[in-house]
Specification:
Blueprint: H1 9-16, H2 22-34
Length: about 50
């Protein structure tokens, strides 16, 4: 079984740009930007296919 690289636009949007993956995105952004000090608690996800 082959997997799509998460570095591609399609895969990244599937992983991070849905309401179901909102907790994963918040955790990812907190780890990346704030070094595990959870400052981001909520965010609004805009449909990436409409933008």
């Amino acid at each position: 079984m082959k997997f799509i690289s998460p570095k591609t636009d399609f895969a990244f949007k599937k992983i991070f740009a849905s309401q179901e993956s909102k907790p994963i995105l918040i955790s990812f952004l907190n780890a990346l930007v704030y070094h595990n000090q959870p400052l981001i608690q909520d965010l609004e996800i805009i449909d990436p296919y409409q933008s």
